[in-house]
Amino acid sequence: MVTIYGIKNCGTMKKAFAWCEANGVEFVFHDSKKQGVERSRLNLWCKHLGWKSLVNTKGTTWRKLTPEQQAIDTQGEAVTLMLENPSLIKRPVVETGAQLMVGFDAQLFASFVK
User: Fold this and answer.
1) CATH at 43
2) Global pTM?
3) Catalytic pick among 10, 37, 79, 113
């Protein structure tokens, strides 16, 4: 089963949802902002993807952080910041059980979720 983590109104998420629907891929959506993401799951994602690939440094949430908050340099600091600000988690994060990916690219998505 494919689980997609993210925020419902995000433009990139809408692209991922549309792609899944157009390609007949069933998925479960987990709203990271409303439901949160457990520390253990964030640590697992960081282990497999690297914390730098998970922190969205291009969004408005990042720009609203203080310079001190933006000065993260460890996985622990990144996880704590993502727990406090779920909008900082890059979207989408996709789990298939055996695989994990972050971001949306139609070609990669096709090879990943089918």
Assistant:
1) 3.40.30.10
2) 0.92
3) 10
